[in-house]
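FORM 7B - TANDEM STRUCTURE REPORT

SECTION 1: FIRST PROTEIN
SEQUENCE AND TOKENS:
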Amino acid sequence: MGTVRRLAEEVGRGLKAALPRLRKTVVGKVALAVGAMIEVRSPNTAELATVLPLETQRQDMREQWLRRLLKNPLLVSATLLEPWARQALEQAHRNGQTVVLSLDQTDLGDRFAVLMLGVVVGDRTLPLAWRVAVGPANIGFSGQQAVLDQVRGWLPDGAAVLLLADRFYPSTALFEWLHGQGWQYRLRLKSNLSVDPGFGQIVTTGDLARGFTQRYLPNVRLFAHEVPTHLGILHEAGHQDPWIIAMNCPPTQATVRDDASRWCIEPTFSDVKRRGFQLEATQLQAPDRLDRLVLIMALAMHWCVRAGQEEARQHPPRSKKNPGTDRSPPLDL
């Protein structure tokens, strides 16, 4: 429990500095929960409760403490994660770089669906915003817009954005939202979507891909609403399905391959699920409590990345000890 207490003290200092108006008791409890999550890496409240450095020795009281925390309406994900999310977005934009966001969904059996928007950091993403729905549902545009609007408000001024998303998400509403914001995008498409490629007839995206290893089609129109976009198609050897990518710019092989960065969210889902925090094993039944549990996991992930970056700056590899090679801004949370 000493390790959890030390972790909680570090996390608590960061939360106090970043959220000075948040109640001191809430900061302390969230910090303890994040410390326990880093130590145990489990969604099981009984396991988390075991390592909590509380005064009581009774396990039932520990579990009750944690259950009350997950029911606390003051734990608003957007509020608690905002300063950490802004920090991650600022770093992604340093030196004028394009901020790359990845939108994807994961299911927890047939109980919950979690839609998550993350920022690409190296070969993975950090969670920024999410929505929890009951059942294995495909969370539609209303949920997508909620997380997109949330993160849009946290972006650094003037930041260029590239959104990556899997083939379950593109819709007329999503395209219109992206066009309205001026965001770049690479959206993978299903093969059964109607498209007007300008050949005088309506076909499907699968028809356009059939028989081609590469194909680039500017100025097409998708869906019945004829949404303007560009298509890039790439079918690599050994892959059953081609990549059919809608994009905001003239299509090339390089712009099609931009979509590969979308897979950076998979390590994040692995961290949240089977290889990390084992979220699929949670016994929680209420979506609001699951949302707060995801918040605790997300704070743990941001804190671990923060700690790793600080360690790298203080003890850089030999090849990076040359002054000026690392110009990343210091973390101040």
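SECTION 2: SECOND PROTEIN
SEQUENCE AND TOKENS:
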Amino acid sequence: MCGGTLKKWCDLGRQPVSQSFRAPDSTTEEFFFDLAVGLCTSCTLVQHVAEVPRELMFRDNYPYRSSESAFMRRHFEQVASDLLATELSGPDPFAVEIGCNDGIMLRTINEAGVRHLGVDPSLQAAEVARATGIRVLADFFEEATALAVRQEHGPADLIYSANTISHIPYLDSVFRGVAALLAPNGVFVFEDRYLGDILDNAYFDQIYDEHFYLLTVRSVQAVAARLGLELVHAERIPVHGGSIRYTVALPGARVPSPAVAELVAAERDRGLDRAEQLETLSTRIEEIRTDLVRLLRDLRANGKRVVGYGATAKSATVTNYCGIDQSLVEFVCDSTKGKHGLLTPGMHLPVRPIEAFSDPYPDYALLFAWNHAAEIMAKEQAFREQGGRWILYVPKVHVV
């Protein structure tokens, strides 16, 4: 982004596209890349060393659906309600969402009668959103897209995005597009996983192809300033194990809150801008791999059945980095219908419906969807009642 020097501090080896689930009889060659992460020694932006072509990740049949998690549905409904009461309370407001997926956030906006537009490259996700009355442009968001949207719909009072901005390597085009599309007093509100929480909790599986950037307040502030915008607020939120919601505006449009300077100072004190501090995560990752593989091998050697729970994108990092195949985990169950009957990327574990989890229950369940642990464990209480145990691997390998 700034032309500075990128210093590599973490390498998770050969990895597949995290959402490239395959049919068992597929003969097409699987795409792999080297998953390494570096720190810009100038602007402190943390990013992948190698870029995966966006068309391979965000395809027309991209399988993830935001609304399939009850927790995320409640989260986005609350976000929409808050934005309706604040940024969208004026006369005839217009809201744009970057990466709207199946439209779960925009449903509340639409029900309030507010003009809106979702932008998402997945045709299938767009069709799901449209079926609920959401207006969607099936395309990637970049500067040219933003200019076309403004010409057709006028300036946006709000541009919102959740867990998407870190996916986009060409941040320069995105931020320039935001600057071109925003109304004079409009805001760009986006939330994304936080490098500080990833480091503190060894959330190494948050590093995968889609998460091209691991953001901090300081790096977002630097990118915004470089591209004609200003970071005016930042707040920590508990989503996905720890995220930050950023509020960006045109320079001088809003008075920056004290939270921005406070969080930047805290990051500097914690060393989030120093490669040697970030490298401590690599040591913890290696320890997790050793402990997890040892545990799985011991369980299988003792005749215990182990099943994966949640065929998440981040599970691709865990299974491929740790070499977890069917000799260690029988299959992975998941609620996403579009993944059923397919094989996970790289390690080719079968994906089965959630109903397979209890038919019969395994002895142990490796919880890949740990960020929804409370929701999942409450739903699967019968598993615990019949003696089942959950395996978690962050912040360290443990059984509950």
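SECTION 3: OBSERVATIONS ON SECOND PROTEIN
Residues 234 and 246 are 5 Å apart (CA to CA).
The longest helix spans residues 280-301.

SECTION 4: SIGNATURE
Preparer initials: ____
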